[in-house]
Every structure is written in structure tokens, then in C-alpha cells.
Amino acid sequence: MRKEAPVHDVIVVGAGASGALAAALLAKAEHDVLLLDANRFPVRATCTDWLSPHAEDILKSAAVPTEAILGDPVRHCSMYLADFSKSIDPELPEKTAFLVDYGQLTQAIVRQFQAGRQGRFEDQTEVVEIRLGEDKITALLADGRQYLGKFLLLATGIDSRLVQQTGLSAGLAEGDGWWASAYSCPSGALAAPGRMDCVLAVGGAGGVGYRMSRDGRLTVGVCVEGSASDAQRELESLSDRFMQRGLLPSDWAEHARGVTPSRSAAGVALAMDSHVAKRTLLIGHVGGFAASYTNEGIYPGMWSAALASQVLIEALQSSVPQDTLRRFESLWRTELAGHLRAPFTDSQSILPLVFSNKQMAGKMVEAFHLGVNF
After folding, report:
1. What is the DSSP string of 188-230?
2. Cα(234)–Cα(223) distance, rounded to whole angstroms?
3. Is 5 helix (H, G, I), strand (E, B) or coil?
4. Among 315, 308, 247, 242, which Cα is nearest to 281's?
5. Domains along the chain?
6. Phi, psi angles (nearest 5°) of residue 56
7. Which helix (H) or strand (E) holds 269?
8. What is the pLDDT of residues 151-166, one digit of tens each?
9. How many H helices and E strands in the chain?
10. CB of 306 closer than 8 Å to CB of 57
11. pTM of this prediction?
């Protein structure tokens, strides 16, 4: 007699920070979780990202050790207008962003998930199709295997083909932003730790750029509205301006050229009608959980994961699980939407004040680091 396949409580597809955190929280609550990712782990991501200090509490709620992964807090920040005609050194808030290695961050969360007895992680495992049933979901793999689960958490990239199979892909068309970043490991003062420079009005009033240094690494990036080629062009242009001012090594142009821009998830969640499909929730990047102005998506992605885990724990005990899942939509819009919205409505009028008033410049830094609205 053929043995019936086990049905996991939750299958999580995507082991980035959002998916791994959701898996860790669900496993901590003693639920049977299967975490799948198409990539090979550990992921070698050498670029630097910034992370809100509020993320520390979310990581600790999943028992993830934070001392080694949060890295340097930002100790110095300069703000520039895109053409570098204006600049200001604002006073930093009491709590500033952490500069983190995204690969180290995700690996630490995955390790914590694996340390428990309730979960299993499979890397190099590509899910090519999902089927949403009335009482369970099926994840079909590229190698022909399939897994069954009571619920599905989709935590992939925003362009994942799996999203279309949930029927929730329409809102993603609203994401007309692109981001591009380049990184290198030069030596000397240029890569001094704890520095994050912010550039405003890149490629237009709503675009932003940044330069970050941590552990001997430099990262420069942009997030702009338009096309992939617009993002590439603005990255090269911003890199040239930083090089002209001695803030990047002279060979940086070769790092900026040939970068492959990616779709931005900035603000996409706010435009989507729903993140809830049949026995399925969308979180993280695929759900558009990234700050509208800065494109920072690690903290809001993990926040969405924490809220989704809370709802799934309730749904697993509910006699009307689909009704319980729908609570995720109202929950994130109540708690998280304010963080995702742009910090101001009229950037053209705000920008002159930022470069003439240190208090306004400080508020802009808070918008970058903490998601605080003006």
C-alpha cells in the first residue's frame, strides 16, 4: 500500500529574511514547517544593507542572536542633492539604522529555524507550481517531487511566476520603480565603518541614492521610477559624482557598469487589493512590503512575516481558517501601512528645507533609518 504523503502545517517558499523569520516563528510555536528555497545556502551576499533598529525586537522574538549580525550602527550621515550642488550633515537620531550583511542575516535566521525540532529546510529546491485546494495546498518541485501543506506562505521575489498562480498578481503591476546597486571591498578610509550617505532627487524628485560602508566594504545604490535602463544610468551617474569628490575609489566605474537592476517593491503593498489567497499569504518582497520612498524592504518584510505568523497560528486552530487568514489584510494595514507610505506628499517643496534646516534634515534621516513620517 502506498504511504500517504505527510501534510505540513505550513510550507514557506523563499528563505530570505521574511520567509526564514516566518518559518522560525511558526516553528517556535511548535508547528510543523517546511522551508524551501531555490538558492544554495549559505548565500554569499557581500553588499551592505541598512536595517531599522526596531528589527532587533522582531529578531529576538524568534530567538535569533543579534549581536554578530546587526553590525555597525550608522555613526555618520551626509545628505546630498542629486547634482551635489547642496549638502548637509544632519544630527542623527538617538537610534540609527544598523548596517548589515544581508547574506549573514538570512543565514542566521535559517540556522535558528533549523535549531528547532519542528521544521525542515531544503535549499536548491525550486517550486515550479502551486495548487491551492479547499483543505490543503500542493507545492510541485522542479525535480518532480511534491509537498503538501495546510497553508502556504509565499516569500519569494516580486517577479515570481508563482504569484500569478495565487490570483493576486494584479497589484504588482503598480510597481514601476527599479533599484540597482554595486559593491566592492577597497582598503583604507573610503570604507570606514558606520557611514551612510543619502542622496535625494536621483533621476527625479522621488528617486533616492545611497553610499554605505561596513567592514571594509562599500555599497552604492539607487532606487528610481522608470525603467531598468534608467536605474542603470542613474547608478553610473551617481558613482561618477561620488568618485569626483573622492568618496569612491577611482576604479569604481567598472563595478557600476554591468549591474543588473531589479524591480522595486517600494510601496507596492499599498496598491494591492489583497495579500490573501486560498490558504495562502504573501509576505516580504513578493507582497510589496518595502518603504515607498527609500525602497528599504528588510524590516517591513520581516514585520509582515511576524504578523502573518501570528495570523497563521490562529488559523491552524480555527474552524474557519480562511476567514481567519483574511485578518492579515486588516492587521498589516493597521500596524505596518504607515511605515510603508512616503514620509511626505510634496517632495519639491520639502527638498529646499532639508538642505537649509538641520532639523528638517534630521527628520529626513529618520525617514530613511526608521520609517518615520514627517
Report:
1. SGGG-TTEEEEEESTTSTT-EEEEEEETTEEEEEEEEES-HHH
2. 9
3. coil
4. 308
5. 7-71+101-174+265-340 (3.50.50.60), 73-96+175-264+342-370 (3.30.9)
6. -60, -40
7. helix 268-271
8. 999 999 888 889 989 9
9. 12, 18
10. no
11. 0.93
